[in-house]
Every structure is written in structure tokens, then in C-alpha cells.
Design goal:
By secondary structure, the chain is α/β, with parallel strands linked by helices. The protein folds into two domains: 1-102, Rossmann fold; 109-198, Formyl transferase, N-terminal domain (Rossmann fold), CATH 3.40.50. The chain has helices at 14-22, 42-49, 66-78, 96-99, 122-128, 164-187, and strands spanning 3-9, 29-36, 54-56, 84-87, 106-110, 133-140, 150-157, 194-197. The chain has an eight-stranded mixed β-sheet with strand order 3-2-1-4-5-6-7-8, sandwiched between helices. Helix 6 (164-187) links the parallel strand 7 and strand 8. The radius of gyration is 16 Å and the shape is globular. The model has no long low-confidence stretch (mean pLDDT 97).
């Protein structure tokens, strides 16, 4: 049975676009919704151009009440009936109460080789630590930040001339390969980790 996928974004949506473009032909999933907390997110236009329904739930009117914000998200998703949620640059931390019903059905991509460097500024932290390797991870979402079973990783060797900016650009290219590969396998019921390298 084809899985219905909702993608959450907050910005330009480059990973979202790769996911949408991958869900064609014999892919075991199809997009049903792109949702953003920012009405100016460029990814919304990309989704609409591909004929994918969009919803915007701004977080500001909820004045820090995350439960009310998440209730509005749940309401917006109801008519689209997703089976899987893919976080693709969604810059709001979700509560355990929201995550729990989606256990085993919500994915996230993070720009580090988890469990290293949960949170922000991952590229600068990898350089400061003198790491030889860096990359990105797709994992199942749990209540803990950037935690959960790892479903795939893509790695590259850090170059002596790399800066946080150049490293971010190189890792983003890997993200664009890894996330679609993991989603295809995951939607088919295969949780075997995907491993890629530059």
C-alpha cells in the first residue's frame, strides 16, 4: 500500500524538493502535504509548483504555547491523513506528546554523523574538534533532540581548507542523496540503514 507523506519545512525546502521529486514511478510513497510554520518559506512555492497541498501554521500567535501550536498542526494534517512525517529543515522543537503517536513514522535529517553534534552549529563544531570525517544522518524522531534509531548516514572527508560554510554546502549535497534513499526504503517497510559516502 502506498504511504502518504507529509513534509515539514521552515525555509527554502531543498531537501523537501528532493523528496518530492523522488516520489514518482514505483516509489512506495506519495506526498500528501507540505507544512510550514513560516508563510514566507520558499519551499511552499516549490511544493505548490509540484501540485502538492500546503498548510501554514505560524507559531507566533501561540505565544510560546507549544501544545496549542502542535494541536493546530494536528488539525491541519487531519484532512491529508499522512502515514509518515518527514522533517526537512523544520526549525521548531516538537514535544514528546506530539511525537509519541508518530513513533516509528516520523523521520528527520540532521547535518552531523550522529550521535556526534546534536543541535546547532554542527559544521563549526566538527572543524573545531579536528574531525577527519563529517556528514549527515537520517533518524527516527523521538522526544529527545536529534536522537532515535539511525536509518542512514552519508559521510565525507573534511578537507584542510574547509570552513563551516564550505562544509555545510558539501554536506547538503549528501543530504539531497541520503534522505530520498532512506525514505524509499523506509516507506517500503525496510529499516536497514542506508550508508553513502562522497
Amino acid at each position: 500500500m502506498t504511504k502518504r507523506v507529509a513534509i515539514f519545512i521552515s525555509g527554502g525546502g531543498s531537501n523537501m524538493a528532493r523528496l518530492l521529486d523522488s516520489m514518482t514511478g514505483d516509489h512506495p510513497a506519495r506526498p500528501c502535504l507540505v507544512l510550514s510554520n513560516d508563510p514566507t518559506a520558499g519551499g511552499l512555492d516549490l511544493a505548490e509548483a509540484r501540485g502538492v497541498p500546503t498548510e501554514v501554521i505560524r507559531h507566533q500567535p501561540f505565544h510560546g504555547d507549544r501544545h496549542a501550536f502542535e494541536a493546530a498542526i494536528t488539525g491541519a494534517m487531519a484532512e491529508h491523513a499522512p502515514d509518515i512525517i518527514c522533517l526537512a529543515g523544520f526549525m521548531r522543537k516538537l514535544t514528546g506528546e506530539f511525537v509519541a503517536p508518530w513513533k516509528g513514522r516520523m523521520l528527520n535529517i540532521h547535518p552531523s554523523l550522529l550521535p556526534k553534534y546534536r543541535g546547532l552549529h554542527t559544521h563549526a563544531r566538527a572543524l573545531e574538534a579536528g574531525d577527519e570525517m563529517h556528514g549527515c544522518t537520517v533518524h527516527e524522531v523521538t522526544a529527545a533532540l536529534d536522537d532515535g534509531p539511525i536509518l542512514g548516514q552519508a559521510s565525507l572527508r573534511i578537507a584542510p581548507c574547509d570552513t563551516p560554510e564550505t562544509l555545510a554546502a558539501r554536506v547538503l549535497k549528501l543530504e539531497h542523496q541520503l534522505y530520498p534513499a532512506v525514505l524509499r526504503r523506509f516507506a517500503a517497510g525496510d529499516h536497514t540503514p542506508v550508508c553513502l559516502s562522497e
